[in-house]
Amino acid sequence: MKPFVLAIDGPAGAGKSTTARGVAQRLGLLHVDSGSMYRAVAWAANRKGVSLDDEKALLELLETRKIVPGPEGVCVDGASVEGQIRTAEAGEAASRVALHPGLRRKLVALQRSLARPPGLVMEGRDIGTVVFPDATLKLFVSATAEARAERRYQELRARGEHADPQAILAQIRERDRRDTERAASPLVRAPDAVLLDTTAIAPEEQVSLATHWATLAMKPVSRPGLVYAFGAGFTRLFARSLLDFHLEGLDRIPRRGPLIVACNHISFWDPPLVGAHLPREMHFVAKAELFHNPLFGALIRAYNSIPIQRGAQARAGLRGAEDVLSSGGAILIFPEGTRNKSGELKPPRAGVGRLAAATRTPVVPACISGSNQIRRSMLRQVPIRITFGSPVMPPGSGNPEREEVRAFARAIMDRIAGLLAEQEKTTWK
């Protein structure tokens, strides 16, 4: 069994270290700041008089130095260098060192060797894309450049150092440009990384949210029931053998941790077609009327369907879905609340926002088209297309305002509309 790995990426000053350190402390995991290893190489190079632009000399230097990250920070040849590598100048030097592909390969191999029980929390700029592309859970911690510059400004002022806000902002933007445009392992969000935007939330909240996701992602995954396994397998075989069927964006689905997939609804085929092709066991929110027939009700319950009442009782009906998400499971929900056979989108109900907020669960927007013309698809006259978007951070945790919940539902619906628009631009073969 592979050890748990939480990969945290993001630009400078977004709160990666605060988040990673906090999660590791709360869960008893090893915390490694991959950037500190590049800082340590740059520090050792400067002490030795080695040019930061000479990759060959840097690699030779690395062969003679033992760089070991640990709970108290990074050590070089057994001595901690944390105090020397946490300056702005050290950060700039590390960014230059990180441009060298050969050096990155050496350090990546060292970083991968640190994954061992009980688990690892590693932060950096290419952890989820290069170092641990199969990490158990991936987060992309970000914030606006202005918010990050303000934090750095306040940090320097607290130390009694002179700080120029505009100069700091310019440095951050230049650092972002260099990190995102470098040829070797550029800073980029992994497709299945959950966004953690720290622009408007406090450090305690970002650590709490990340810890919540990590805790649930660490839970063992049980095998699906026989009815679900057979039904999903049969649906996949049917779709790929008899339909003009296309999928896009499966790499955007987090494999572990709580997840809501929110999709438009145009046919009764939507739940099985979308759910069966997701790379994890799904649960489905379905209207209570479908359960009135005892035989059919028992069948769809065995297929992980959760009954929900319409109208005023809908909120209470979401408790079954909340239980699934609170255990680290995944839910497929249709924000419109009912089918629209015409294919046009309807305004969303607030349920998806309320459910995401109550359970602090990220949401993946999805869209399906063509499923309302299943017979024509069997004749290869109409393609059925399913597209998944990137995970979206839930609205404010706890009890957000009603309008915030509704705004989140509208934002998810806007993303679904955007996915449908992209489908229309795509030539499917």
TrEMBL record:
It is found in: Cytoplasm. It comes from the Bacteria. GO terms for cellular component: cytoplasm. Residues 259-371 form the Phospholipid/glycerol acyltransferase domain. Transmembrane segments: none annotated. GO terms for molecular function: 1-acylglycerol-3-phosphate O-acyltransferase activity; ATP binding; CMP kinase activity; dCMP kinase activity. It is an enzyme of class 2 (transferase). Its EC number is 2.7.4.25. Keywords: Acyltransferase, ATP-binding, Cytoplasm, Kinase, Nucleotide-binding, Transferase. ATP binds at G10, P11, A12, G13, A14, G15, K16, S17, T18. GO terms for biological process: phosphatidic acid biosynthetic process; pyrimidine nucleotide metabolic process. CDD domains: CMPK, LPLAT_AGPAT-like. It catalyses: dCMP + ATP = dCDP + ADP; CMP + ATP = CDP + ADP. Gene3D superfamilies: P-loop containing nucleotide triphosphate hydrolases. Its main location: cytoplasm. InterPro entries: Cytidylate_kin, Cytidylate_kinase_dom, P-loop_NTPase, Plipid/glycerol_acylTrfase. Belongs to the cytidylate kinase family. Type 1 subfamily. PANTHER family: 1-ACYL-SN-GLYCEROL-3-PHOSPHATE ACYLTRANSFERASE. This is Cytidylate kinase. The gene is cmk.
